[in-house]
Design goal:
The chain contains 21 helices and 26 strands. The strands form 5 sheets. Strands 12, 13, 14, 15, 16, 17, 18, 21, 22 and 23 form a 10-stranded mixed sheet that branches. Strands 1, 2, 3, 4, 6, 9 and 11 form a 7-stranded antiparallel sheet that branches. Helix 7 (about 275-290) packs across helix 20 and helix 11 packs across helix 19 (about 645-660).
Amino acid sequence: MSVAKKTKKSETEVDATVWKTVHRVVFPIDGDTDTLPLYVDFNAAQRVVSTEESTAKSGAKSGANATTAAASSNVSGSRQRTDYIKGRREIRLPAFRRVSLGTYFNAFPASYWRAHTDVEQVRLTVETDGDATVIVYRSTPRGTANRVESLQVSQGSPVTIDLSIMNFADGGWYWFDLATSETAITLTNAHWSVPQPEGFQAGTLSVGVTTFNRPDFCVKHLRTFAESPDLTEVLDELIVTDQGNQRVRDEEGFEEAAANLGHRFRLVEQANLGGSGGFARGMQETVKAGKSKYVMLLDDDVLIETEGILRAVQFADFTRRPTIVGGHMFNLYERSVVHNFGETINEYRFRYESAGASQEVHDFGASNLRTTPWMHRRIDVDYNGWWMCLIPTSIIEEIGLSLPVFIKWDDVEYGIRAKAHGFTTVTLPGAAVWHMPWTEKDDTIDWQAYFHQRNRWLATMLHSPYSRGGRMPIESMMVDLRHLLSMQYSAVELRLQALEDLLDGPDHLHRNIGTKLPEIRRVRSTFSDAQVSKDLAKFPPVKRVKPPKFGHIPSAPATMPAIVTQALSAVINAARDQREGAVDFPEAVVPAMDARWWRLAKLNSALVSASDGAGASWYKRDAKTFRKYMIRSVSLHQKLMRRWDELSKTYQDELPNFTSPEVWEKTFAANPAPVLPVETVTDK
């Protein structure tokens, strides 16, 4: 099959193929210049530079990083023109202007369709209200661009070209540039479509949103869905599971927004069972209703690109077998920045990592798709975060609902579990939401420390292919030590409680899902390192009796011998009783970003800023607490290792039970929404 085939048919010629539009070219209509690079590239003269070529030119060790730097230097001449955008599907270009649609939202991710569907070709259709040139490109997995065809389009004569995707095994995209000549024109419509097989049936979906005290975001979701007729065509229900005490139904504008969705909206209220409890409820309600082929799990505090939801559904319709289709997460505060283009599990260490050559953070405003070589190689993943994740109901019926773990690792484990049953997860480019990033907070030292520890261990016991979890147990102990050297005793207490509950067996999962958080908050309230004060004047003045050695502020050890030496010294200091009055005054003020073990281990007391900048906590070294927790940590880890085979088998055997709809149904019934006092209901 040829790479490209222009199709210009006579009036009597009939194309028997039914073509299904799966990827429409769209534009933002809110005038936000930060998001515009995700849709239109005004630097069309720039070309894609391969990873190898970029590395050779810059002399850098990392081709991806070098390309980003090179692209950034060229972007300064970019001029974002929101005035060119005339509608959701339209862009107006003046004479002698060229733009590229080789962007995140408008390029076609051909390699993903090649890898996961039986589709062999894609058709590009472009319509304008005047004469223009359409230049079609494809990229290789190395990130180089190849010009495919140059086409002339005019008013009343849309141009159509069929493109093979058969040689996109490892990566590559299709896109087009649009260029004008002597007159201005408007792109009125452009879309990518694929052949629809005989007997094809399009699927519909329900969307499950879990919320806790974000009623404003939820009402915005209702409006977004109601105002998108294309979306409501495939929507069976928008199910909002409200677990907060600031009820969605009491939010201003709720009744009108709910009325606009009509029978397509359902509000479920229950006690706070965390993200896993809320999403499990969305899964359960969708499967019970029996109407939808898919359920999409969606965070409450996200901004939605509705076209991305449609693309996820349409992609899932064509996959060879039921497939989980997730979207990317862009930064709510830096709209052109994407976090984690794909994630996998390092099974030996049992932790999540960026997949393949992808970077954890990438700014499309600095380096767009065409100038980012690593992004042209297909990124294969083990799971997708539940900020936006479409799951076929047939998978839920086979492998069950979410783990009953409140928060953390529920989405990761579900992807691993699905993979073990032969189901693939795809993080689909062009499907995304904007969400608050986790880079500005450290939830491993707050109340979530319990769930990070317990749930990672649980997932390891359920799915690790290595004896006794590979390296994970030793890393768990090292994390305890790191927190203890940093005087973060509250985090260690919660982590050790997590291990104790894990030793208790699977029954604790459903039993305490609705009660564990209040217990955690009570425990943390007794630790000074967990008490954040917004009034910094309440703390005593900084006073240091013994100055730092040679006047140097400690820095991160650069080599393994240095790490070992510095850690041993820190352990000796932490285990040794401090002199009297050593913690009466903080010895330093330490910013949150500098609160690392090698910095804090040199101090007996410190004021440490909260990661969100809301205040500070007073960390105080306590040798007795250090020794007690070290002994307890070693003891619990030894117990887990001795009982590993027994415990892992127990949890694995019980997995189908504690993720079953029947057991979850009992948990939902036992945790109804609490009746709120009038003052709580009305207080915003």
